[in-house]
Amino acid sequence: MTTLTSAKPGQTVKVLKLHGQGPIKRRIMDMGITKDAEILVRKVAPLGDPIEITIRGYELSLRKADIAIIEIAEKESP
Q1: What distances in angstroms separate CA 34 from CA 9, 14, 48, one per listed residue?
Q2: Domain range list for the chain
Q3: How is domain 4-74 classified at the CATH fold level?
Q4: What is the pLDDT of residue 14?
Q5: Would you say 51 and 59 are in contact if contact means Cβ atoms under 8 Å apart?
Q6: Tens-digit pLDDT profile for residues 16-67
Q7: What is the pTM of this model?
Q8: What's the count of helices (H) and strands (E) in the chain, helices before strands?
């Protein structure tokens, strides 16, 4: 399983599934990170945490611990 924590800056990925349960999963979904959403990884902090992403036209900074539940696939090129 490939998670968002392994994505590199400049890479666009697609959300396959959200694992986990409870308030963390609900908070991730409330931010617009849902199945089939496209995420652009903009920046990764020097020590690797947090990660800045763009999703649905807005930017978010998320901790690695929170995004470890997001299963991704690399976006297919047209």
Answers
A1: 20, 9, 23
A2: 4-74
A3: SH3 type barrels. (2.30.30)
A4: 95
A5: no
A6: 999 988 898 999 999 999 999 999 999 999 888 899 999 999 999 999 988 8
A7: 0.84
A8: 2, 5
